[in-house]
């Protein structure tokens, strides 16, 4: 459980180190998520793929990854992050190796599927360890830093992989990623630990709790319209990352601005850099003003305006394009507050499940729906295309038009999300109890008052 009783205050340095190992896995995992944006051109020539085939391989990573987000949260609540991440990291490295060895499109699809399965606990596990090891007041900062490292992993990965692809091909780049995963697995086996808990008290609580009591918090999360609205907002606002920055952004910049692969990868990397900076900034800013929703509204509106200029205003200089890409990433970084809100409105016993659910919704919308939908629109526009270079700027403008529409819908979803005022569910309950106790007692009419009980006087002898 996320808020288990701690026997002794752990060293803050040790807590940050343990979170840092899990955050490095999130960094590594996000580098793999976004790698297809760089690899898709070389893979399409190698496997003779259309836009739909390329988008299917890119989104294959997310099929198992998305399905396993909520189960990963349940496993984190039950077994902790130490066991789960020590198994997950080496399996992810194995998935990279298999992807680099894939002889055809079908094997590449299965290898990406396996990689998504293996890396499913990565992001949620990092946030979980931050929540269990570090003080509650630092959670918004920890969530922002985790997302920042994910975005930096994507930006660094795109630049590194584009250099490796130009140097030795896309297969070699995947083998290097596998080697990096092996080194990270060794670090995890050395440093990862679960937060200390009072095991006897925890065991007694588990024995006393009935099955209904154990299930009810999870049912409350998965059946709440509030969580669904928050998850849909997170997916629609953050769809820019998996659908554009990770997949179709490089191809669009090459078609619209005639950029090379490395320059286009640098441009999409600016989206991740902007999002990385924003992820930390929005958490601190919302803590400062004591509210979450105004910053989430501002980020979605800013992203919508920047995207319309970037996609539909012709003749922009390259410096302006790069500035807009950075601002786009900075604006959509506000979706990271969805994880903070989810933690604040969820019961203590199932916060891992709540975080996994929000991450699932984000990936379902951005990766599972938008990535292949953009490829389908491109194929509908040019049915006889045999390579991604056959699509024009107008084709990409048509296909990418679903992203600003999604941002408009996200503003509507945010209306249904409850403002938490930066207080957790438990803090609100304590505050409410305090208010009730402090209320003055209502005066009772004199005819309803009970007469005082008179004690019989002792008889005098």
Please state the second-level CATH architecture. Up-down Bundle
Q: What is the number of strand segments?
A: 0
CATH class: Mainly Alpha
Radius of gyration: 26 Å
Number of domains: 1
* Binned strand content: under 5%
From N to C, what is the helix and strand string? Answer: HHHHHHHHHHHHHHHHHHHHH
**Mean pLDDT over all positions:** 80
Number of helices, where a helix is a run of at least 4 consecutive DSSP H or I residues: 21
Assign an overall shape.
globular
C-alpha termini separation: 70 Å
CATH fold topology: Growth Hormone, Chain: A
Portion of residues in helices? over 70%
What composes the largest sheet? none
Would you tell me the structural class of the helices and strands?
mainly alpha
Per CATH, the superfamily is MFS general substrate transporter like domains
Question: Your description of this structure?
Answer:
Helices cover 77% and strands 0% of the residues. It has 21 helices and no strands. Helix 2 crosses helix 3 (51-67), helix 12 crosses helix 18 and helix 17 (337-345) packs antiparallel against helix 18 (351-381). Residues 1-9, 198-212 and 435-451 have low confidence and may be disordered.
Fold blueprint:
Blueprint: H1 12-33, H2 36-47, H3 51-67, H4 69-79, H5 81-101, H6 105-118, H7 122-133, H8 139-168, H9 170-191, H10 199-208, H11 211-222, H12 225-238, H13 240-257, H14 261-289, H15 293-312, H16 318-332, H17 337-345, H18 351-381, H19 393-400, H20 402-414, H21 425-438
């Amino acid at each position: 459980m996320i808020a288990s009783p701690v026997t002794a205050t752990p060293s803050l340095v040790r807590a940050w180190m343990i979170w840092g190992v899990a955050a490095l896995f999130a960094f590594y995992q996000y580098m793999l998520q976004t790698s297809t944006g760089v690899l898709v051109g070389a893979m399409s020539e190698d496997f003779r793929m259309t836009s739909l085939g390329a988008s299917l391989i890119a989104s294959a990573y997310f099929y198992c990854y998305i399905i396993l987000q909520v189960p990963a949260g349940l496993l984190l609540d039950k077994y902790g992050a130490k066991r789960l991440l020590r198994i997950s990291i080496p399996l992810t490295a194995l998935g990279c190796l298999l992807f680099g060895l894939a002889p055809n499109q079908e094997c590449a699809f299965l290898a990406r599927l396996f990689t998504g399965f293996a890396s499913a606990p990565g992001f949620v596990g990092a946030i979980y360890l931050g929540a269990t090891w570090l003080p509650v007041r630092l959670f918004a900062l920890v969530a922002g830093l985790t997302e920042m490292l994910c975005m930096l992993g994507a930006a660094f990965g795109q630049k590194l992989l584009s250099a490796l692809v130009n140097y030795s091909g896309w297969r070699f780049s995947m083998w290097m990623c596998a080697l990096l995963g092996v080194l990270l697995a060794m670090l995890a086996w050395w440093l990862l630990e679960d937060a200390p808990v009072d095991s006897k008290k925890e065991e007694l609580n588990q024995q006393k709790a009935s099955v209904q009591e154990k299930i009810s918090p999870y049912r409350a999360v998965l059946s709440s319209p509030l969580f669904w609205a928050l998850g849909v907002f997170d997916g629609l606002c953050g769809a820019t990352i998996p659908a554009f920055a990770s997949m179709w952004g490089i191809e669009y910049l090459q078609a619209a601005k005639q950029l090379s692969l490395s320059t286009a990868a640098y441009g999409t990397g600016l989206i991740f850099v902007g999002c990385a900076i924003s992820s930390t900034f929005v958490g601190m800013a919302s803590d400062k003003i004591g509210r979450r929703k105004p910053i989430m509204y501002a980020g979605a509106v800013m992203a919508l305006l920047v995207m319309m200029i970037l996609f539909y205003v012709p003749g922009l200089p390259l410096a302006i394009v790069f500035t807009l890409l950075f601002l786009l990433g900075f604006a959509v970084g506000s979706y990271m507050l969805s994880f903070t809100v989810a933690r604040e409105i969820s019961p203590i016993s199932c916060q891992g499940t709540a975080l996994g659910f929000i991450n699932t919704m984000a990936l379902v919308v951005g990766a599972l729906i938008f990535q292949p939908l953009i490829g389908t629109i491109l194929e509908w526009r040019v049915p006889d295309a045999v390579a991604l270079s056959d699509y024009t700027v107008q084709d990409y403008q048509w296909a990418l038009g679903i992203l600003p529409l999604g941002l408009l819908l996200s503003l509507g979803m945010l209306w249904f999300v409850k403002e938490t005022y930066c207080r957790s569910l438990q803090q609100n309950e304590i505050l409410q109890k305090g208010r009730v106790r402090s209320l003055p007692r209502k005066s009772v009419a004199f005819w309803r008052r009970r007469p005082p009980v008179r004690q019989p006087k002792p008889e005098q002898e």
